[in-house]
Specification:
about 170 residues; seven-stranded mixed β-sheet; globular
Length: about 170
């Protein structure tokens, strides 16, 4: 038997398997996130991005303020929750509510959906540097921000049209 034998070969295979798994540990890498989000919004450059095994967070410049046809924009919470039964990406544009209030009301109307959104936001904070966390916090409390949710990927998106910025967050769900 060769001195590296079967046992060494098994170790090598195990090591390569673990290495490939660990290299794919981020929830989404930047390219995957951009590809997904670009289906809905006209993205410019990446302003900030981080992905770990249990979270993804990023900010992108928007080229303009259009929202793609793949996104259903609802004027209120009930419409959003009902539309998520038929469409995977729904936004709420209600100038009377902040994105945080939208998630609270969504949880009151549909506990599972609303809590999934809130959990995403909480878990994604681990992937935010100080600047992104501050911007994300500002947008959560901004009634002029538009809240969007992608139920296929559990991705929360908040649009700041005035500054042409899109902030995205995803937890471990």
């Amino acid at each position: 038997m060769h001195r590296f034998g079967v046992r060494s070969t098994n170790r090598l295979v195990l090591a390569l398997t673990i290495a490939s798994f660990l290299s794919a540990c981020g929830r989404f890498n930047e390219a995957e996130t951009r590809d997904r989000v670009a289906q809905f919004f006209p993205l410019g450059p990446t302003l900030s991005f981080m992905s770990k095994i249990d979270c993804t967070a990023g900010a992108f410049r928007l080229i303009d303020d259009t929202i793609g046809a793949e996104v259903t924009v609802e004027p209120g919470i009930i419409g959003m929750i009902l539309m998520l039964e038929r469409r995977s990406v729904v936004a709420v544009d209600d100038p009377a509510l902040t994105p945080d209030e939208i998630m609270v009301k969504a949880a009151n109307y549909s506990r599972d959906r609303g809590m999934a959104m809130r959990r995403t936001v909480l878990e994604a904070r681990a992937c935010m540097d100080e600047k992104l966390a501050q911007e994300f916090g500002r947008l959560l409390a901004a009634p002029e921000a538009i809240f969007a949710y992608d139920s296929d990927t559990a991705l929360v998106m908040i649009i700041d049209h005035a500054n042409r910025v899109l902030v995205v967050a995803r937890g471990s769900a």
